[in-house]
Design brief:
The structure holds two protein chains of two kinds. Chain A is an alpha/beta fold. In chain A, about 30% of the residues lie in helices and about 25% in strands. Chain A has helices at about 60-65, 90-95, 110-120, 130-145, 160-175, 190-205, 220-225, 240-245, 250-255, and strands spanning about 15-25, 35-45, 50-55, 75-80, 85, 95-100, 180, 210-215, 225-230, 235-240, 260-265, 270-275. Chain B has helices at about 5-25, 35-40, 50-85, 95-110, 115-140, 150-175, 185, 195-215, 215-225, 225-230, 235-260, 265-275, 280-305, 315-330; strands at about 145, 145-150. The chains are: A alpha/beta, B mainly alpha.
Chain lengths: ~280, ~325
């Protein structure tokens, strides 16, 4: 890296949202009000697993779109390792930040291997075919996600969980510093949920990969994340350790329903919906 | 085997096919020349004024070249539109882009650009403008906040095609018929011998369009995952879309200007190739150029010979192949549209 841009690694957080304001031009389909962030500020530290939770339409997905520059803030700034993301070329950003979406649209049946190799694009955008190093990186990513055996299969023939892991492999092939996941366990059964959680923890501990994930599963987030951000209608309701964020009164006011909060054997909070009986 | 070698092998095989079709096209025709006479003419050992020299070198050879260029351009335009719209049924004629280009050419004709290379260039410019206009309309109308809906896209393409066809009919009805000589014949899609200078222009424009799409083919793979995903993987999606959009319109406009609106080549050829080489646009674009050339040349050779000494329009042959093909794709897709 260019020494003039050498960053004081220990000092700057990996991600900084500074008073980020954004509003969509019109309401999303089926919604009455237009969603907006009035001014969002938070940081993600290097090496942590950071969870974003909150009710539907709290702005979780929009936050990911701002971070990956699909959307641009109307005010404020988003910094990645101290540099404004707006200054980075598209491929430069994709070398740092890899996104695992919930689902991939699939009008054409690409194979798993082709999908994972697409993660190598930002490393050499001018190259026509991937080179041997790209293929090695893609194979390693598939090995880490146990998708090597699926490599020649078209995406259409995969189960939801297999597709999810293929998408994770693609993101790992990008060799990013920050891995961003949108509902990483939404399509997974219990066993793969556990395996995905273990895989993410391993990536975090062994490779020092910073992970930002959005999840509806409060208990997974509590179990996996070092810190949580609770979003409510585009604003930070609370940021901190799971025990501080997953508080009965706060959750009830943000989600608008009754919950109970217990402790798991590991000491993390466990949130349960208190069903109305009647 | 590496990808580059796989591609080289596929291109070599298709080149042989193209060569075989090309040789056949040169040797058969209504003039009933003997193979040795054609060979003599090709070798340059026939009298310049002899029947075999005129038929082979001035009629068949330029026509073979025009067919190969047009087929290559249409097939690559099809791949380009399919990648842009993420829709395997998209294609210049289905999207109404050919009709827009045809409208441009008819307009150029009534403006009195009569003959020669200037006329060819004028027609190409007008056809390109018409193709761009039609493609832009289809794109803007079919783009919803959530992206391009497949059914909306196809319906919009049909409607835009009907609109421009109606506009052409209006011009034909209003303008003195003598100024539109051959328009009807041309509107059916016809390959005739094209003068050498025009053929060179055709080759340059088609080559430019194919090159632009080929250069973008790796990024087009990423675009297939959706615009948002492609941007998150580092693609400058806006620039990519503009480039491929312009290139596909250029290819369509060029073909329409030189040969008339020939339909369905961009549908049939890429679809068959998807089965043979897969979904990777880096394979589809170059193989479509060769296979498209071979396909249209075969169709034209058929058109010249089935009702000889009369001729069918090559557009009739491609439409007869294309329409059932469209229905077949529609019915056999694994997921509903």
């Amino acid at each position: 890296m260019d020494p003039a841009h050498a960053e004081p690694a220990a000092l700057t957080p990996l991600v900084q949202f500074r008073d980020v304001a954004f509003a969509y031009a019109r309401p999303a389909r089926g919604r009455e009000r237009t969603f907006a962030f009035p001014g969002l500020s938070f940081t993600v530290e290097r090496g942590e697993i950071f969870g974003v939770i909150g009710p539907n339409s709290a702005g979780k997905t929009s936050l990911l779109r701002l971070l990956t520059r699909v959307l641009r803030p109307q005010r404020g700034e988003i910094r990645l390792a101290g540099r404004p993301v707006g200054d980075l070329a598209p491929w430069a950003l994709a070398r740092e930040v890899a996104m695992v979406p919930q689902e991939a649209p699939r009008p054409f049946p690409f194979t798993v291997e082709q999908l994972v190799l697409m993660g190598r694009y930002p490393h050499a955008p001018g190259r026509f075919f991937e080179d041997a190093a790209d293929i090695t990186a893609a194979r390693a990513a598939m090995a880490a996600t146990e998708t090597l055996a699926l490599a020649p299969l078209p995406l259409e023939q995969l189960s939801g969980g297999e597709r999810q892991r293929a998408l994770l492999a693609r993101a790992l092939a990008q060799e990013p510093r920050l891995l961003v996941l949108d509902e990483p366990t939404a399509h997974l059964d219990l066993r793969y949920q556990a395996e995905t959680a273990a895989l993410l923890r391993g990536l975090n501990r062994e490779r020092g990969m910073t992970i930002l994930l959005v999840s509806h599963d409060l208990n997974l987030a509590a179990e996996l994340c070092d810190r949580l951000l609770l979003l409510s209608a585009g604003e930070v309701a609370r940021v901190g350790a799971a025990v501080d964020v997953l508080e009965q009164g706060l959750l009830e006011s943000v989600f608008g329903c009754h919950v109970t909060v217990d402790k798991s054997p590991s000491g993390r909070p466990v949130v349960q919906l208190a069903y109305e009986r009647g | 085997m590496t990808d580059a070698r796989r591609l080289a092998r596929a291109l070599a095989a298709l080149s042989l096919v193209l060569l075989a079709v090309g040789v056949t096209a040169l040797f058969v025709g209504s003039a009933e020349l003997s193979p040795s006479a054609v060979a003599r003419a090709l070798a340059g050992r026939a009298e310049a004024s002899s029947v075999e020299a005129i038929v082979t070198l001035s009629l068949r050879l330029p026509r073979v070249a025009a067919a190969v260029l047009a087929g290559a351009a249409l097939a690559v335009a099809g791949v380009g539109f399919q990648a842009l719209t993420r829709n395997p049924l998209a294609e210049p004629s289905v999207l109404g882009v050919s009709s827009g280009a045809a409208f441009g050419v008819v307009l150029a004709q009534i403006l009195g650009l009569s003959s020669g290379i200037v006329a060819a260039l004028g027609a190409a410019v007008f056809a390109f403008a018409g193709a761009l206009l039609a493609a832009t309309i289809v794109y803007l109308v079919a783009t919803a906040p959530g992206g391009l809906a497949i059914q909306t896209l196809l319906l919009t393409g049909v409607i835009v095609g009907i609109f421009f066809s109606a506009a052409i009919t209006v011009i034909i009805s209003v303008v003195d018929f003598n100024r539109l000589t051959g328009v009807i014949h041309w509107l059916l899609g016809n390959l005739g011998p094209i003068p050498a200078a025009s053929l060179a222009l055709f080759a340059v424009l088609a080559g430019a369009g194919v090159w632009l799409i080929l250069k973008s083919s790796r990024e087009l793979n990423l675009l297939a995952l959706g615009e948002e995903a492609s941007r998150q993987l580092g693609v400058d999606a806006e620039r990519l879309k503009r480039r491929v959009f312009v290139a596909a319109a250029l290819l369509t406009g060029t073909v329409v200007a030189f040969t008339g609106p020939i339909g369905f080549v961009g549908l049939i050829v890429p679809h068959v190739l998807r089965r043979l080489v897969g979904q990777d646009n880096r394979f589809l674009v170059p193989t479509a150029a060769l296979a498209g050339g071979a396909f249209l040349l075969a169709a034209d050779t058929l058109a010249r010979n089935v009702v000889a000494p009369a001729e069918l329009s090559v557009g009739v042959i491609t439409a007869f192949c294309g329409a059932p093909f469209f229905v077949w794709i529609l019915r056999t897709r694994s997921r509903p549209l």
